[in-house]
Amino acid sequence: MKSIWPLSTVVIVLAFTIAGSQAYQPQSSGGIPVQLLVTVEPKRGSDVPEIKREDVMVFEGKNRDQVTDWIPARGDRAGLELFILIDDNADTSLGTQFEDIRKFIHAQPASTKIGIAYMRNGTAEIVQALTADPAQADKALRLPLGIGGANASPYFSLSDLVKKWPAASDRREVLMVTDGIDRYYGTGDLSDPYVDAAIDDAGKAGIVVSAIYTPGAGHFGHSYWQSYWGQIYLSQLAEKTGGEAYYLGFASAPVAFVPYLDDFARRLGNQYFLSFLAKPEKKAGWRQIRLMTEVHGVDLVSAGRVFVPTGP
Length: 312
What we know:
There is one protein chain. The chain is α/β, with parallel strands linked by helices. The chain has two domains: 27-73 and 272-308, no CATH class; 78-268, Rossmann fold (3-Layer(aba) Sandwich), CATH 3.40.50.410. 28% of the residues lie in helices and 29% in strands. It is built from seven helices and 14 strands. The strands form three sheets. A six-stranded antiparallel β-sheet has the order 12-2-3-10-1-13, with no helix packed on it. Strands 6-5-4-7-8-9 form a six-stranded mixed β-sheet. Mean pLDDT is 88; it is low at 1-28.
């Protein structure tokens, strides 16, 4: 025998269903356009499935934003501007890794332009402007000075590089090679203002920063305490800009850069331009965001916040 619900019950159920579905609908109009570079990272192995626009969700808190575009960084959108930023305070033993760096440079596709810069006294000394000729970038590599105190703060140098870098429609990324130690501010503080400033500068410019740890010259080069905080800062910088931080262990020099550079190259090959509509606000500012997908076995890696201009 059929059971028949009272009309009032049906109305309540329908109302609840409609309200619930509306709560999870993305904003369809009136949002502020925002673009973000996203890396699709496999949770296991190296195979990355194809991700489509409808697979991607963007949230500001509990509110879901409308995704307007999801374009793979391939074909006519494969362009990449990459600066390799080397710490002049690094120990000269870094020279043993140069062959690995050179092979990485020559392995990049024609759509990639590479620049070489050195961190020195808080500035970025560009010794090779962005070039599509790998031989030119290769030739610009030189041993670091290896002199303690040669770099006031690696984060000053990163901010300086960002400010010197003209805006472009291509991807823009930095690979820092440094111990991450802030010799200007000191260590032991999770709220280093110069790290925070570098994160803000890179974030506003849409630049993704990755880093390879290498020991510095002098006492700091083998100080567990200093190296610990240096690697914490590099991890924080990479995490908050959507990059990756690579290190072997505290105060330990990598045996080889090859595994790091191979992983970095894989990340570059699995990136997308994400466009979405952020919620309009009266004031410009940073917005915390979360990216999600129902595609199994992958993470969507990006900056955890975006700078959104004022709404209409």
